[in-house]
Design brief:
The chain is mostly beta strands and 781 residues long. 3% of the residues lie in helices and 63% in strands. The strands form six sheets. The chain has a 22-stranded antiparallel barrel. The chain has a six-stranded mixed sheet with strand order 8-9-15-16-13-14, with no helix packed on it. The radius of gyration is 28 Å and the shape is globular.
Length: 781
């Protein structure tokens, strides 16, 4: 253990009296290990783990009188380099890979500064972020995002905006869990990503300040601070970060229309649309909390998280419609001016009781989250003069879109350790979500604003989920196993106030989880895992209101969406804790996918979410952590996968499949005299999503850092997406849909940042909890 937290997948070697290695194992997720079937004699163990000093135990004897030996807690010391009499620094790898978890240590990445949380996820191994901010993992959509171990309960659009407003300087690490245990919510077909915010564990006063500035097509800058005070009984902490992000994007859509209703021959009409956007974003993130150690067995915590911001979507669109011979039919010029603002505040009260028996804990959490979002939209379209309208035509539309979501959560967890290897966990959780979205559209008619009943909609949504779980793990002589079962009851009610209609869903489901680990000597570890998970429709996807980009392109929800269910099997192999190979297979029923539709007679295109029949995903991935030289270390990730979509029902029968691959390389260099460098590159090949095909894209980024002010400060220079390879291109050819799109995002930028740490930064306090997750929950981590 390190500071009371278990170290998973540490290498443990059993030695004889002469120090010769006999056999080896890897510790499990709770830091436990076991050797059995040993002859009588004298032994010792040697424990090694990345980032820690080698631990050599004292010798112990096995005999008839003493056939079992419990070594107790073996505490590992972090591998530190003494810089002077006071300051100690610990350097972890940027990316750490385990059997079922990947950790990206943001605090150790030079490339992180000046980026936001969504941009950090783009560079994480196996993670893909599309142009709309939707996140997938190893080719599979349906990733649930947690902040400090807690679900956000935001719509994809709201989550994307929040992540764009979360500065990298406030993030400690990103954890990617491909196979979460039954203790976690069953939501998230592809797995879960946990974003862990910074929090100092040092005694006394300490903290840090940071600032950054730079530009892409527009200026970006930000600043923030973290403060922490800890004594033997109380820990008080807080942070604040401000960020401004200027951004300009270019979007091109080409749509072909066929009077026959099928794609054949030359199109009868062609629409060429070009959009230029101006999208400034201002965000304020704050966090304040307190932990009170009532006594050695009870801890009470209070935490408040806040995210407040404003976003402007100011775009100008030109849309030219031509006939089959190229003659101009109409020319539209549209201005879309959308002022958005939001406020997300979360309150958490938490309690942890540690019994006298080691490994026995009880914890409770109560959360309330208030999320409000407002959009004021003005859509003005001018049709240039033509033979029908010599003076041209002006259409004005405005929309007011207030959305409020309140989330109430209560949960309790109990854990117990029996003997030295059997761990039992159980818990209950209830969540209530209330969402109210009242979209009001008005159009200008005869100089008067008139309510547009065909586009407006008032939608209320209520969701309650009640869950319970049991989780047990045991280590046997030659393998270990974890069995989990989660039960969830879901009740939802969607009310369309405008039409008086409603839709209720009510269902109970079981979600099993099985993990079997098998070590082979000191260097090899195998894992077989199975789970069943669910992805419920988001309340915004269920809302049938329309959002217009221009009069000929809009998006709308679907109140009849069903939840999608996924069953997954994974086989993982780890060699020496550095090299990982993974085989995975999953099948998703009723997969929710955004589908493009077209109304040919009015030259209009729309997108809405639909349930497709199935998505089958399978592939293999490799991760290697290598030290090429003392001054050059790298983590390389390669994934090959195939997605197979099949559809039926409302969108007709179809199949769309393709082999794809992705590559990610993270390289760190030490140059001496306080200088270090970082180089990251990734490539996502051509792939399929529903009925669409996305072309490949890439990004190469580099950064340099110089330590200053006795190594308490640093200056970093970042160049992101140097060759501007992040270009999103899609092709959709299905039934009567024939469309191409090109989205040129503002990804290339140059940023300069400064950070400084102060106070008692290196005197850490030990925690004796045997469960790191519960400890982190109490600490708000």
């Amino acid at each position: 253990m390190a500071n009371g937290a278990p170290i998973e997948y540490a290498s443990v070697a059993l030695q004889d009296a002469n120090g010769k290695g006999i056999k080896g194992v890897l510790t499990d997720s709770l830091g436990r290990f076991n050797f059995s079937g040993l002859p009588h004699g004298k032994y010792a163990v040697k424990v090694t783990s990345m980032g820690f000093i080698l631990h050599q135990s004292a010798h112990f004897d096995l005999s008839i009188q003493r056939s079992k030996v419990h070594l107790g807690l073996l505490k590992l010391v972090e591998d530190a380099q003494t810089l002077n009499a006071v300051n100690i620094s610990v350097q972890r790898k940027v990316i750490e890979q385990g059997l079922d978890k990947t950790v990206v240590n943001i605090e150790n990445s030079i490339l992180a500064d000046g980026n936001n949380a969504l941009e950090l996820l783009e560079r994480a191994p196996g993670v893909k972020v599309d142009e709309d901010g939707k996140i997938s993992l190893k080719g599979r959509a349906g990733v649930n995002i947690m902040i400090n171990g807690k679900l956000t309960f935001l719509s994809p659009a709201e989550l994307s905006v929040m992540l764009k407003g979360t500065n990298a300087s406030s993030i400690s690490k990103i954890e990617i869990l491909a196979n979460p245990s039954a203790k976690y919510d069953a939501a998230g077909n592809a797995g879960m990503i946990n974003i862990v915010m910074k929090k100092n564990q040092a005694k006394g006063w300490n903290g840090s300040v940071s600032a950054n500035g730079g530009a892409g097509r527009k200026a970006r800058y930000g600043s923030g601070f973290n403060l922490n005070y800890r004594n033997d009984g109380v820990n008080v902490f807080g942070s604040y970060n401000y960020a401004f992000r200027g951004e300009t994007e270019y979007l091109d859509f080409t749509r072909n229309f066929y009077d026959s209703g099928t794609i054949a021959g030359l199109p009868n009409r062609v629409s060429d649309q070009h959009t230029k956007t101006n999208e400034p974003l201002n965000t304020h993130n704050f966090r304040v909390g307190m932990d009170w150690d009532i006594n050695a067995h009870n801890i009470l915590g209070l935490l408040v998280n806040g995210n407040v911001g404003k976003y402007l979507h100011d775009s100008k669109t030109g849309n030219l419609l031509r006939d089959q011979t190229g003659n101009l039919i109409s020319a539209l010029q549209t201005t879309n001016y959308d002022q958005q603002s939001w406020k997300n505040i979360t309150y958490n009260l938490n309690y942890l009781h540690k019994f006298k028996k080691e490994g026995q804990t009880f914890s409770a959490d109560a959360d309330f989250a208030s999320n409000s979002f407002t959009s004021n939209l003005n859509l003005d379209t001018y049709t240039l003069p033509n033979s029908i309208n010599p003076a041209g035509v002006t259409n004005k539309r405005k929309g007011y879109i207030p959305a409020k979501t309140d989330v109430y959560i209560a949960k309790v967890d109990y854990a117990d350790l029996f003997g030295i290897s059997f761990k039992f966990e159980t818990g209950l959780k209830s969540s209530l979500i209330y969402s109210d979205n009242n979209l009001v559209y008005q159009s200008l008619q005869n100089e008067n604003w008139v309510y547009d009943a065909t586009s407006s909609n008032h939608f209320k949504y209520r969701e309650q989920i009640h869950a319970g779980y049991v989780n047990a793990s045991e280590e046997f002589e030659k393998f270990s196993i974890q069995l989990g079962l989660r039960a969830e009851y879901t009740n939802t009610l969607g009310n369309q106030i405008s039409t008086g209609s409603s839709l209720k869903r009510d269902y109970f489901q079981l979600f099993p989880n099985v993990v079997i680990n098998k070590p082979f000597g000191e260097a090899h570890q195998l894992q077989l895992a199975y789970n069943k998970r669910i992805q419920r429709p988001d309340y915004s996807d269920l809302n049938p209101f329309r959002v217009f980009r221009d009069p000929l392109l809009y998006y709308e929800g679907n109140p009849y969406l069903k939840p999608e269910l996924t069953q997954s099997v994974m086989f993982n192999y780890v060699y020496k804790g550095k090299y990982t190979a993974s085989l995975n297979y999953s099948k998703t029923k009723d997969v929710i996918t955004w589908i493009t539709g077209q109304i040919d007679n009015i030259n209009t295109t729309y997108e809405s979410p639909q349930n497709l029949k199935n998505l089958i995903n399978y592939g293999i991935s490799f991760t290697g952590q290598t030290n090429y030289f003392k001054w050059w270390s790298a983590t390389n990730f390669f994934n090959v996968f195939k997605n197979e979509y099949t559809g039926d029902g409302a969108i007709g029968n179809f199949s769309n499949s393709m082999w794809s691959y992705s590559f990610n390389s993270q390289n760190s260099f030490k140059a001496g005299k306080g200088y270090s460098f970082e180089l990251n590159g990734y490539y996502n090949s051509k792939s399929v999503y529903g009925t669409a095909i996305e072309k490949g894209y890439y990004a190469i980024s580099a950064a340099v850092q110089k330590m200053i002010l006795k190594d308490k400060g640093s200056i970093k220079l970042l160049a992101n997406d140097i060759f501007q390879g992040s270009q999103y291109r899609h092709i959709t050819q299905y039934q009567n849909i024939d469309m191409k799109s090109h989205i040129n995002v503002d990804s290339r930028r140059l940023m300069l940042s400064f950070s400084y740490r102060f106070g008692n930064s290196f005197q850490t306090r030990e925690r004796k909890s045997s469960n790191e997750e519960e400890q982190n929950r109490v600490k708000g981590n």
